[in-house]
Design a protein that fits this description.
41 residues; alpha+beta; two-stranded antiparallel sheet; 2 strands; Reg_factor_effector_dom_sf
Length: 41
């Protein structure tokens, strides 16, 4: 959100969270991977 604000961008929709690696693949929470997309203009 700091990047968006610092570059004078505008959020134009809802963020999307996609889990790539979670407790179904590893028991080590330090290895979890989540992709977050925020639509901007």
């Amino acid at each position: 959100m700091d990047y968006i604000e610092n570059h004078h961008l505008t959020v134009v929709g809802f963020p999307r969270e996609i889990t790539l690696i979670d407790n179904g693949l590893t028991q080590d929470s330090g290895k979890y991977v989540t992709c977050i997309s925020i639509p901007i203009e």
